[in-house]
Amino acid sequence: MKALVWHGLGDIRLDDVADPQIEQPTDAVINLTASAICGTDLHFIRGTFSGMQAGTILGHEGVGIIEELGDEVRNFEKGDRVVVCSTVSCGVCPPCRAGHTAQCDNANPNGPEAGTCFFGGPQATGPVNGLQAEKARIPYAANTLVKIPDGVSDDQAILISDIFPTAWFGAELADITRGDIVVVFGCGPVGQFAIASALLMGAARVIAVDKHQDRLAMARRQGAFVINFEREDPVAAIKKLTGGTGADCAIDAVGVDSMHAHHGPASAEAEQKAEKFEQEVKQVAPQTNVQDGNWVPGDAPTQALEWAISTLKKAGRLSIIGVYPPTAEVFPIGKAMNKNLTMKMGNCNHHTVIPHLLELTRAGVIDPVKVLTKIEPMSDVLNAYKAFDKREPGWIKTELKPHA
Ligand SMILES: [Zn+2]
Ligand SMILES: [Zn+2]
């Protein structure tokens, strides 16, 4: 079958690989009818999340039809239409039963202390071959797959494999209540769904910060108050938009590939911090492989966090769902401590969140497709990756057709 394979930093290829097989009685094999490219995938190619094993199939977002089932999978049958939870979970260990399925004790082959197991990630996360392929092996299928209700399309469901649940989880971590002013840093796909989730949870006002016009325009269409950090100092603008007190909560939907301002009033502070940001980039991305302007790491890994902390009100709440690798060790702890902030963070507990979002979609409360901007055949996957990596206008979220 065809699959997108990681060969090295800046080196991904559409290869012919062997079809996946059932390896454990708890496995399933699915035929993928939709896949997608995610910002998380870029970290592995840019080098801002290291430890990938050559030969690993990329991708952790998928929708498909069950083709083969292991003997111990009792809750599905062949032919079922399913969405794949990006994180693998067993469903019976203590963390899973408390709802923390991203912290499953059994899923990661490296052991219970190894952390989150997900598709298409570094060695320390499994590795489990990913979903940018025609077929995939799904470990712990009984819990890692969720049946798609009638009336929810593949285009809707693919957005519920990772990005919508991650955003919803981030909004839950922010403990949003009616009347809150919520700031969302980053208007990529997860940021867009964080805006939607905050509004569904009762936020009175959502402020969205980014520098790309197409992303800010989408945020504005959703009802967010937008700030372009290349034109305004986001901290000053948010102060003004919150009557001088700061935001109730902030969601970091950017992560380690954060960029600082290169223009406008916020660029002066970035220049002062240039050396510090450079050190941070070296720490998280000791090796890179930049080619023709592709696969460039973000130039200020802690910028979004710094802005988030500065824009929160006293005793405000910070939610972090942007990806940071285990090697990232810098955090503005002093500022956060001295403002009495509450911070929650983590990898999304997909299995816990996904059924509710499928139901919201089926009921017509939200149509996730509003964030989908491209549908591309797998044969064009390399070009799609490059355009998405460069943040070209219109490339906000790309679905892949695995058999096209
Ligand atoms: Zn993703
Ligand atoms: Zn578990």
Automatic annotation (TrEMBL):
<dbReference type="InterPro" id="IPR036291">
    <property type="entry name" value="NAD(P)-bd_dom_sf"/>
</dbReference>
<dbReference type="InterPro" id="IPR011032">
    <property type="entry name" value="GroES-like_sf"/>
</dbReference>
<dbReference type="InterPro" id="IPR002328">
    <property type="entry name" value="ADH_Zn_CS"/>
</dbReference>
<feature type="domain" description="Enoyl reductase (ER)">
    <location>
        <begin position="8"/>
        <end position="393"/>
    </location>
</feature>
<keyword id="KW-0862">Zinc</keyword>
<dbReference type="InterPro" id="IPR013149">
    <property type="entry name" value="ADH-like_C"/>
</dbReference>
<dbReference type="InterPro" id="IPR020843">
    <property type="entry name" value="ER"/>
</dbReference>
<keyword id="KW-0479">Metal-binding</keyword>
<protein>
    <submittedName>
        <fullName>Zinc-dependent alcohol dehydrogenase</fullName>
        <ecNumber>1.1.1.-</ecNumber>
    </submittedName>
</protein>
<comment type="similarity">
    <text>Belongs to the zinc-containing alcohol dehydrogenase family.</text>
</comment>
<dbReference type="GO" id="GO:0016491">
    <property type="term" value="F:oxidoreductase activity"/>
</dbReference>
<dbReference type="InterPro" id="IPR013154">
    <property type="entry name" value="ADH-like_N"/>
</dbReference>
<dbReference type="Pfam" id="PF00107">
    <property type="entry name" value="ADH_zinc_N"/>
</dbReference>
<keyword id="KW-0560">Oxidoreductase</keyword>
<dbReference type="Pfam" id="PF08240">
    <property type="entry name" value="ADH_N"/>
</dbReference>
